[in-house]
Amino acid sequence: GQNIDQPTEMTATEGAIVQINCTYQTSGFNGLFWYQQHAGEAPTFLSYNVLDGLEEKGRFSSFLSRSKGYSYLLLKELQMKDSASYLCAVRDLTNNNDMRFGAGTRLTVKP
Amino acid sequence: DAGITQSPRYKITETGRQVTLMCHQTWSHSYMFWYRQDLGHGLRLIYYSAAADITDKGEVPDGYVVSRSKTENFPLTLESATRSQTSVYFCASSEEGAYGYTFGSGTRLTVV
Question: Does pLDDT of A96 surpass 80?
Answer without folding.
Answer: no
